[in-house]
Amino acid sequence: MLSNKRIQELELMMEFEKVEECFKEVSSWIENVGRKRLKETVNLDDSLEMLLQAQKQFKEFDLVASEYCRRGQEALKKMNQWEDFSFVDVHSYRAKLQTYEDQLEEFCTQLDETRHRVCETVRLYEFFDKVR
User: Where are the domains of the chain?
Assistant: First the structure.
């Protein structure tokens, strides 16, 4: 039983290393690219033409950002199996995963909010453009 437990621990550590590599890549992209691009989208232009251009650029960014969010979420799903294990060593890995999960969740939420804000702003400008 002890041998089986150790084998399971080793398998989980190997799985964690794979997931951690994925998360390091996702985390690096979020910090170095994603957050900067979201900040750029805070100030939307005053003309409909410029706003439509910003929306087009955001959609291109959104495709890439959504892919990173998806990859991060898939990696988290793989680690859900850890909930069934009570090894002491697993808790330190779980703490690292929680940090990655929090970062990913925050970014994905900001991405969703920005997507909604851009869409609503374009609709509002289009409405005012029709009213004129």
Answer: 48-131
